[in-house]
Structure formats: structure tokens, C-alpha cells
């Protein structure tokens, strides 16, 4: 588990670090709205900067989402299976779909990033000609982080197939929906007739 938690720790750290993009985005959008509509003096850089921040957030938080098991999953039938079947299915699907997609992301992302660096690419949508080759470097980096987290997920699947129990994940923030569900269960248990 130390190996899995080390990889999860890297994914959590990366997700938290790039999560600050949300604050930068909020401040920059607020600034742009103020100068555009109140001062009638829009910026030439805000649009491109916002696109790059959104892209960085989306790319670099993928491994975080995978480490926290918060990615979108069609689990209508999946959740009814025993843990060993779930783990075996996940293991198979990682090899059939996840890793081929991630390999393509790293491979072609590297080509895109290296071409962008070679040409010192700038945004063609912006009068400010903002450089975007730094941003394009995040594409293969995000793929690499997802690949490493995918390896941790495979180890997690093997452990679940052997024991019949999913190993614990490193805890981080919880979604409001989950917190409310836990609070509802605690409230129901507190007022149930068996507890009186």
C-alpha cells in the first residue's frame, strides 16, 4: 500500500496545486468583467489567460480525480457486482481502454508540445500574441501523471481481487452530496427505535 499511497500522494499534491487555478480564474474573470463593463476598457490578455488556466486545471487534475475515484462512471450495474468482479472488470478495462488512450495522449501530446516549442507558438486568437507552448507542455505531462496513477489503480485492482475488499484511498475533500448522505445516515441512526 505504501507504493499506491505514494502515487496517490503525488496525484493529490498536483490536483491541489493546480486547483489554485480556480482562484486565479475567478479573480481574472471578475477583473475583466469590471474593466470591460464598468470602465469600458477590456483587456487583450484575459481571454487567452482564462483558456490556458481552464485547460491547465482540466489536464492536471485528471490524476487527482482518478486517485479520489471521482471520475464519471456508468455504474448502474457495476455497483451490484461483488468487489472481486468489480476489480477484475476494472483491471481488464484499464488495459483495453485507459492505457491505450493515455499512451496516445502522451505520444501525440509530446509531438504537439515539441512542435509548439520549436515554432515558439503564440495564440492566433489574441491580439496580444500570448505564448502557448508552455501550456501545450502540460499535455504529455498530464498523460504521464495519469499513467502513473493508472498503475496504482491496477495494483489496487489486484489487491481487491485477492482480498475481496477495496483498499482505502488517501482521504481528501469530500463532495457535498457525500457529506449530506453521511449526515442523513447519522441522523437516521440517532432517531431509530433501536437506539432508544
TrEMBL record:
<dbReference type="GO" id="GO:0005886">
    <property type="term" value="C:plasma membrane"/>
</dbReference>
<keyword id="KW-0813">Transport</keyword>
<keyword id="KW-0812">Transmembrane</keyword>
<dbReference type="GO" id="GO:0022857">
    <property type="term" value="F:transmembrane transporter activity"/>
</dbReference>
<comment type="similarity">
    <text>Belongs to the TRAP transporter small permease family.</text>
</comment>
<dbReference type="Pfam" id="PF04290">
    <property type="entry name" value="DctQ"/>
</dbReference>
<keyword id="KW-1003">Cell membrane</keyword>
<comment type="function">
    <text>Part of the tripartite ATP-independent periplasmic (TRAP) transport system.</text>
</comment>
<feature type="transmembrane region" description="Helical">
    <location>
        <begin position="88"/>
        <end position="110"/>
    </location>
</feature>
<keyword id="KW-0472">Membrane</keyword>
<keyword id="KW-0997">Cell inner membrane</keyword>
<protein>
    <recommendedName>
        <fullName>TRAP transporter small permease protein</fullName>
    </recommendedName>
</protein>
<dbReference type="InterPro" id="IPR055348">
    <property type="entry name" value="DctQ"/>
</dbReference>
<feature type="domain" description="Tripartite ATP-independent periplasmic transporters DctQ component">
    <location>
        <begin position="25"/>
        <end position="158"/>
    </location>
</feature>
<feature type="transmembrane region" description="Helical">
    <location>
        <begin position="130"/>
        <end position="152"/>
    </location>
</feature>
<comment type="subunit">
    <text>The complex comprises the extracytoplasmic solute receptor protein and the two transmembrane proteins.</text>
</comment>
<keyword id="KW-1133">Transmembrane helix</keyword>
<dbReference type="InterPro" id="IPR007387">
    <property type="entry name" value="TRAP_DctQ"/>
</dbReference>
<feature type="transmembrane region" description="Helical">
    <location>
        <begin position="45"/>
        <end position="67"/>
    </location>
</feature>
<feature type="transmembrane region" description="Helical">
    <location>
        <begin position="20"/>
        <end position="39"/>
    </location>
</feature>
